[in-house]
Design brief:
By secondary structure, the protein is mainly α. Helices cover about 75% and strands about 5% of the residues. It has 7 helices and 3 strands. The protein has a 3-stranded mixed sheet. Helix 4 packs across helix 7. The two termini are about 20 Å apart.
Length: about 230
Amino acid sequence: MYFDVYYLVLVVPTLILSLWAQILVKSTFAKYSRIPSSRHITGQETAAVLMRANHIAHVAIEPVGGSLTDHYDPGARVLRLSQPVYRQSSIAAVGIAAHETGHAIQHALSYGPLILRSTLVPVANVGSSLGPWLAVAGIFFSFPLLLNLGIFLFGGAVLFYVITLPVEFNASARAISLLRANRILSEEELRGVKKVLTAAALTYVASALTALMSFLRLILIARGRRR
C-alpha cells in the first residue's frame, strides 16, 4: 500500500493555511462590513471617484452576484463588484472597491506583472486542470513523456499563482495610497482597510504555496520513479 509522504509533509500544511486564510478573510470582511465609512460613500462611488481621479475612462462598474467575488476584467474592461461591496458604504466595501480599482489602474499603465498574468490565464487553466492528471497517469503507467508533460503544464499554472502575488500586493498598496490621497477615508479607517486587504492577500499567498508545494511533490515523486 502506497503512502504519499510528500503530500502529507508538503501539501497538507498549505491546505490548512488556505483554510485558515479563507476563514480569516471572511471574518475580517464581515467585521468591517458592519462599520460605515465616515463619508458614507459606497463601493461603486469609490471606484468611480478613483477612476476619475486617475483619468480612466471607458471602464464600466457593474454589480456581480455572490460574496467576495469582486474582480477587474481587463479583457472586457469591466470592474465587477459583489453586491455587498457595490451598494454598501462600509470600510470593507470602500477598501475592496479601491483594491479592484487598483487593478484597473495597473491595466491603464500596462503594469508588467498584470500583463504577464493575463497572458498566462489560458496556460494556467489547462495546467491546473490537466497537468496533475497527466503526471499521475505518467507515474501509474510508467510513461516518462506523459509525466514530464504533466509537470511542464502544471508548472505554467504555478507560475500564474506566483505572478499573482505582486499584482495583488501592488493593487492593495495603490488602494491605500489612493484612498489617502483623495481623502476618502481617515487614517483610523485606513487601518481597517489594511486588515481587510492583508487578510485577502493571505489567501493568494496560501494558494501560491499550495501550488508550489504540489509542483515540488510531483517533481520529487518523478525523481523517485526514475531511480
